[in-house]
Design a protein that fits this description.
This protein is an alpha+beta fold and 445 residues long. 16% of the residues lie in helices and 22% in strands. Strands 3-7-6-12-11 form a five-stranded antiparallel beta sheet, with no helix packed on it. Strands 5-8-9-14-13 form a five-stranded mixed beta barrel. Strands 4-16-15 form a three-stranded antiparallel beta sheet, covered by helices on one side. The termini are far apart.
Length: 445
C-alpha cells in the first residue's frame, strides 16, 4: 500500500500537497540584480534609453545616473525625422515611418535629432526597403509609381542601360550594284558619246548620237523610278513575303512570322499621348522651312519639312505565331539593328493660322530643351501596342528550349522585280512591320 505524501504550507499561507523543496543554495538571477527605476513614461528617467535618444540627463531629478562612457557620436542632421532606439545600420528599418515617431512619454525639444552609429537611409514612401542611393545621385531611387512632380515626362533610357535599343537613324534602304558592272556601263556610255560626237562633226549626221541618247533616257527613267518608289516597293515586298511556321523552322533559317506581340521585361509608353504597354515607340518633331526660315537639321532644304527631334525605342518582346501557336522571343534590344516600318500619325499640327500651343505640347518641348518659337511644326507619334498584329522578319535561333528571332548578319535583298522595273533593294537589320491601324486590331492580352 502506497504511503501517503504529506502536505506543507507556503510562505503566503497556502496549503499544498507534497514535500517542501530543499533549497540547497539560492538560485542565481537570470538578469542583472540591479533594480531598474520606474520611469513613469518620462524618458529622462530611463537612463541609457534617454542617452540613445540624445536627451540631456544632466538636469532634472532621476533615480539612476548612468556611468560615464565614451563620448556621444555626432547626431543625425535635424532634417531627419526618424528616431530609432539602439544602434542603427546603414540601411533603413522595415515599415513606413511618419513625419515624426513619438515615444512612450513626453520628449524634450532637443530630441529632434538622434545619435546613430552610421549613416542611415530614410524609408521610402512606398514602405519598401532599398539599399540606398544608386550611382552618384544624392536622391534615393523609389520603387513603384512616381509622384506627378518627380515622374519623367518621357522614357528614360539610362534607367535600363543597354537593354533598350535607341534607333537614331532612318531605315537604310540601298541598291547594291557591282562596281565592275558600274564601271563597264560608264565606259560604254562615254565611248558612245565620244563616237557620236565625232561622227556628228565629221559626217554631219547625228544618228549615232540620237541612238545613244535614246538608250540613256530609259536608263535614267528607271533609276529615278527606283529612287522614288523604293520604300513603297519594299513595303509591297514585305506584304507578299510568305509567312513561315515556327514549328518546322530550323536553326539559322530566315523567316517571316506574323502574330500577336506581348511586352517583355521593359514595356514602353508614348511620350505625348501616354499610350501604355508598347513594344515600340517613336516621337518625331518636324518643322517646315520657308524662304528665310531656320533649318531643322543640316540637310534641311527650303520649302520642305525637316526632322528637328527624333526618339525611337524598342526592346526585346514576344510574338505568338498565328499558324503554329508557338511564342518566340524577338531579340530587338541591346543595340540590335532594327528596321521598323510603322507609320506614325500626326498628334500636334501647328500651322500659321493656329500657332497657339497647348500646355501638354509646351511641356513636351521644354522637357527636351526645344524652343517654342514662331514656327510651323508637326509632332508625329508611332507605336506598336501590346496585342497588336505585326510581322517580324529575322533569323531563327534555338537555344535549349527557348525559340528566338534575331537580326540577320547580312542585309536582306528584295530581289529584282522586272514587272515593276525595280532593282534589288537591301534592308539591314531585323524587320518590324505593322498595319496602319493600331486601335481597332488590338487583341487584349
Amino acid at each position: 500500500m502506497a504511503t501517503r505524501t504529506g502536505s506543507h504550507q507556503l510562505s503566503n499561507g497556502l496549503m499544498v500537497s507534497g514535500r517542501p523543496e530543499q533549497q540547497l543554495k539560492e538560485r542565481q538571477p537570470t538578469i542583472a540584480s540591479r533594480a531598474f527605476p520606474y520611469t513613469g513614461g518620462d524618458v529622462k528617467k530611463s537612463g541609457e534609453l534617454g542617452k540613445m535618444y540624445g536627451i540631456d540627463l544632466s538636469g532634472g531629478d532621476h533615480h539612476h545616473h548612468p556611468p560615464a562612457g565614451p563620448p556621444k557620436l555626432p547626431s543625425r542632421p535635424p532634417s531627419s525625422s526618424q528616431h530609432n532606439s539602439g544602434s542603427a545600420r546603414s540601411g533603413p528599418n522595415s515599415g513606413p515611418i511618419g513625419a515624426k515617431m513619438t515615444n512612450s512619454g513626453p520628449m524634450s525639444k532637443k530630441s529632434s535629432s538622434s545619435s546613430f552609429s552610421g549613416p542611415m537611409t530614410p524609408i521610402q514612401p512606398t514602405g519598401l526597403i532599398t539599399s540606398g542611393p544608386l550611382g552618384t545621385s544624392s536622391s534615393n531611387r523609389r520603387s513603384g509609381q512616381l509622384d506627378a512632380q518627380s515622374a519623367p515626362s518621357s522614357f528614360n533610357k539610362s534607367a535600363y542601360g543597354s537593354a533598350v535599343t535607341s534607333i537614331s537613324e532612318e531605315v537604310k534602304l540601298g541598291f547594291r550594284v557591282s562596281r565592275v558592272a558600274m564601271w563597264v556601263f560608264l565606259v560604254v556610255v562615254v565611248m558612245a558619246l565620244v563616237v557620236g560626237a565625232f561622227l556628228m562633226a565629221a559626217v554631219k549626221k547625228s544618228v549615232i548620237l540620237v541612238a545613244v541618247g535614246a538608250a540613256l533616257v530609259p536608263a535614267l527613267v528607271i533609276l529615278l523610278w527606283n529612287y522614288s518608289y523604293k520604300k513603297n516597293g519594299v513595303l509591297r515586298f514585305l506584304r507578299k513575303y510568305p509567312d513561315a511556321e515556327l514549328r518546322g523552322a530550323v536553326d539559322g533559317q530566315y523567316v517571316k512570322v506574323t502574330g500577336v506581340v506581348t511586352c517583355g521585361s521593359i514595356p514602353f509608353e508614348t511620350s505625348y499621348q501616354r499610350v501604355p504597354r508598347c513594344v515600340y515607340v517613336s516621337s518625331e518633331l518636324y518643322e517646315y522651312r520657308g524662304c528665310g526660315g531656320k533649318p531643322a537639321n543640316a540637310k534641311h532644304r527650303f520649302f520642305s519639312w525637316g526632322c528637328r527631334h527624333s526618339e525611337r525605342y524598342v526592346a526585346d518582346f514576344y510574338i505568338s505565331d498565328f499558324q503554329s501557336g508557338l511564342r518566340a522571343l524577338v531579340k530587338a534590344g541591346y543595340g540590335a539593328k532594327v528596321a521598323p516600318f510603322v507609320k506614325p500619325t500626326v498628334v500636334v499640327d501647328v500651322t500659321k493660322g493656329n500657332k497657339q500651343l497647348s500646355p501638354n505640347f509646351l511641356r513636351w518641348l521644354s522637357d527636351r530643351g526645344l524652343s517654342s518659337d514662331d514656327r510651323v511644326m508637326r509632332l508625329k507619334e508611332g507605336y506598336v501596342k501590346e496585342g497588336s498584329t505585326v510581322s517580324v522578319m529575322g533569323v531563327v535561333r534555338r537555344h535549349e528550349n527557348v525559340l528566338m528571332i534575331v537580326p540577320p548578319t547580312e542585309p536582306v535583298s528584295t530581289g529584282c522585280r522586272w514587272p515593276c522595273c525595280l532593282l534589288p533593294t537591301y534592308i539591314e537589320g531585323l524587320i518590324l512591320s505593322c498595319e496602319e491601324s493600331q486601335n481597332g486590331d488590338v487583341i487584349p492580352v
